[in-house]
Structures are given as structure tokens and as C-alpha cells.
Write a structure and sequence with these properties.
homodimer, about 200 residues, alpha/beta, four-stranded parallel beta sheet, two-stranded antiparallel sheet
């Protein structure tokens, strides 16, 4: 693409988006060029609106448009169960399962000592404060099922257990709909260790 | 994704872009949420700037930021050779070859009688006016090498030839770097018909 500097600029900006290469950026630019002004401006305004209105929930550090996120503000949620996740992006998939009706706490990452991410870099102090000030019966440690996530969960479990709060972690096992044949041995091992009676 | 309406809105807008599904839209939304305000606003502003500044070149109907596009405005281009293309998006690939130093004419589509696109729906009258009013020695018909493009080229050739203007069309043949084995028979047939002596 050449000729128009404003077109080149938009092309560069689209290319900065994750997963967008030169070809897709070009297709997006042509979409913007060919669509009516109102549609294009809806995209531009949605971007600036997100940056203007979205902040972190004061209680759980999920994305929010008010002091509290919609989950923390909802009277329907069970405040006595807190699910701890690494990032706000981990919340929507859990919400979609519709099996969890507690509230969340977003750590803002996972322990990774090699990268300089220790307990002070995560919102652990804030979690402990929540546990001290409210009546919590269970903490579900839903950090990722990888080394950093497991380390973080183990660290938090040690910290929370003395408070006489039940600490759980989502089960590891075979993905539903998957083939046993193709399961990696660690997952399969976990699935056997955690076998349940029928 | 749920909880914040402004996040849902941006998700919907990203999903409208060509080639963007729910997963990529989500990744783009997280990019906007996590990036600094200035970067996000650069994208929003690039979109509105394109809609504010880009229009069609008065002469060739390429995208332009002034009355004339940069190609028509350039003193270095040979005004006696006009390359006819279907859409503005066909110009950048031709420019990248760096073998064409003439000017362009964008038809705004190709003849497709079944879809109600006849000569009056394309910028053919405008092309004929250019040919009548300036000294043009050659018209290169670079419409697409498919049925609509060939039909359009044949139609234009019949219209232009009586004006005593050379009418050409880019060669059909084997793509450079391709395998002869995998060439379709039409392309291979064209390549043989158009064989050149070495």
C-alpha cells in the first residue's frame, strides 16, 4: 500500500494488534475505507470508550466500569467463596461454565522468580486483607495448570490454610471430548490419581 | 467475556472486521485494555483520520488525500500510459513491482450482468473522457484474470481500439516460483499459447 499517509498510518496501527499480519491489516484498512463513516467511527469510539471507562474493580481487580465490577456488585453472588485467578481474562471462561457463583480475586500474574515476579508483585496482600475482613469459607485457586500457576497455588495454599479456610483447586484430568489415546502422560497421570467412584 | 458493556461493545466492533473471529477479537480487546492509553488512541485516531481525509482522486479514482492521488500528482509518472484496474486495492501490488511508471484508472468494479453491474455502474465514461482529452498512447487493461475481469477487458478493448490507442493486457502464464506440475490447465494452456522465444 502506498500513496496516502493516513492509510499507511492505519495499516501500521492495525498491524500492532496481536495476530494481525500485513495481509490482514490491509484487509481491515480496506474495510474501514469502504464502510460507511458511522460504522468506522463506532470502532474508533469503542476503542476510546474502553480506555476512558474501564478500570480495575476496587475489590477483586477484575475489569470494571464502576468502583466495583459487575460480579462484585451483584447481590446474587456468594461472597463467601473466592476464586483466585491470574488475569481478568481468566474470568469469562469460568463464568461461561455457569457452575461457579462465588466472587473472584485477580492476582495480576503468577509467581515467576526467574523473571523477578515475587509475592509483592502480585495482589496477594490485597487477597489476605479480604480474607481477614470478610467471612470467607472457601478459596478456589484457579491459577493456570502450569509450573508458574502450580507454584502460585502452592504458595497461596500455605498462606491461607492457617486461616481455617477451605482451599481448593479445580481438578486436573482428561479434557471432556478428548481422546485418551492422545492425552499427555502428565494429564493422564493426574486423571488416574484423581479418579472418582461412580 | 461479560461484565463490562464497553468491553462487549469493542468486542463486537472488532468482530465486524474481515477475518476476525471471536477469539481474535478477544485478543485484540485485551491488547487495547492492557496497552497504554496513547497507543490505543493512536489506533482510534488513525481510523477516524482515514475516514476524514481519504477520498477518491478526481482523475483516476484511486484513494487520495487531496484532489489528486499521489500518483496522478507526481511529475515523474508517464501520463501517456493508463493502467485500468477494478479497485484501488489493485494498485499497491502493481506499484510494488516497480515496472510500471504510467498512471491508473480505477473502474470501481467489473462487469457482472447477472448482478446488475453494467458499463454504467463502472467509471467507463470517465475513462473515455480521459482518453479523449489527453494524449494517451497505451491503455493496459489490468482487470482480474477471471471471468468478470476478462469480460470487462474485452468490452473496454472494443471501446478503446477505434481511438487508435494501443490496448494491452498483462500476460497470463505460470506464476514465477510455482510448480508446473501443480498449474491448472487453463493457466498452463495460456502459458503455452503465450510462449516467448529465448
Amino acid at each position: 500500500m502506498q500513496s496516502a499517509p493516513s492509510i499507511q498510518k492505519l495499516l501500521d496501527e492495525f498491524e500492532r494488534l496481536p495476530g494481525v499480519g500485513p495481509k490482514s491489516a490491509q484487509r481491515m484498512v480496506y474495510y474501514v475505507l469502504n464502510t460507511d463513516r458511522a460504522s468506522a467511527m463506532r470502532l474508533a469510539e469503542a476503542i476510546s470508550e474502553v480506555k476512558d471507562t474501564v478500570r480495575f474493580c476496587e475489590r477483586c481487580f477484575n475489569y470494571a466500569e464502576a468502583d466495583l465490577c459487575e460480579i462484585c456488585a451483584s447481590p446474587k453472588r456468594d461472597r463467601s467463596v473466592i476464586c483466585v485467578v491470574s488475569e481478568p481474562r481468566d474470568i469469562p471462561p469460568i463464568e461461561r461454565t455457569a457452575v461457579f457463583d462465588g466472587v473472584y480475586h485477580v492476582l495480576g500474574g503468577e509467581l515467576a522468580p526467574m523473571e523477578g515476579i515475587g509475592p509483592d508483585e502480585l495482589r496477594i496482600a490485597e487477597l489476605m486483607k479480604r480474607l481477614a475482613s470478610s467471612d470467607v469459607s472457601e478459596v478456589v485457586l484457579a491459577t493456570n495448570p502450569n509450573i508458574e500457576g502450580e507454584t502460585t497455588a502452592a504458595y497461596l495454599a500455605r498462606l491461607i490454610k492457617p486461616l481455617d479456610v477451605k482451599v481448593t483447586r479445580p481438578a486436573s484430568g482428561l479434557p471432556v471430548g478428548g481422546d485418551l489415546e492422545f492425552a499427555d502422560e502428565v494429564t493422564l497421570g493426574r486423571a488416574f490419581e484423581g479418579r472418582v467412584s461412580l
